[in-house]
Amino acid sequence: MADLLLVVAMGAITYGSRVVFLAHPGAPPTGAARRFLDRFPLALFVALAASILVVPDSGLDPRLGWAAAGGAVAGAALTRRSLYGVIGCGFAAYWVVRLIG
Amino acid sequence: MPSGASFRRGLRDGTPIFVAVGALGIAFGVLALEAGLAGWVALLASVVVVSGAAQFALVGLAGAGVVPILVATTGLALRHVPMSARMAQLVGERRRRVRLAVAWVLVDETFGLTLAAARRGEGDLVAYKAGADLLLYSGWVSGTATGVLLGDRVDPSAWGAEVFFALLFLGLAAPLIRRWWDALVAVLAVAAMIVAADLLPAAWQIIGAAAVAAGIGAVLPDG
To answer: What is the pTM for the complete model shown?
Structure first.
């Protein structure tokens, strides 16, 4: 029941943010509020990744975490920040270090 | 230009999205089970929420409790607000129920396609977006169902699922780095996460780090 309510609440929040101007046209946020909204997803995604790859007590071998992070950064540079380029290069670097030991 | 033709062009342009989003949906289904979510919860999330970002955050924060998950969902959802404003301009004077339906799958991928279609003078943007959305939505939901079905047959640690999960977030972050200031926000998020891991309760570490980095980012310039 709690999971059902959580998913429904997530759906309501997400749909609410999508429908707000389609239901009630008006001016979008500006200034610092807009920049916060623009940059929050980036900050959240990086924090989520860092919590696994680079936080010392995450449980992952630090060499593997840094290898994956380095590979991902290289992948971003090589593939114009493509989602699949980042995942592919990061995962390749992780596996190279994992197999070498 | 007839709506049927616009709809078919939306289907055509949405085909690569079906494949890509379907693959991500499979990953979401597998990782949701690994995080301890029930299969029906993962599938319901894909049907109801239709947001990869929010749903992967749900997986990442599954052990943190309801409030951090809803805070993360809100923070991620707020990026739709400017998209909603732009889409309202593109849709123009349409019936209210049409505008409410357009909002259902207002996601980055088909929003981008619709913007491009508007620039090249597509006749019926609502029909075009409906075609692209149909493929995105079906790819996301069917991919999730496939991932949930595969979940029990996959040993996540054997193939490095935890690292894949982290890389997925970096992959989602990468296209958002458009300026040097964005790169600085990313570096700040890493530093804030390392500090938060020492200072904050586990449930609030990720949200706290993201809020600090984005808060500093809010006072940085655009260019």
So the answer is: 0.74
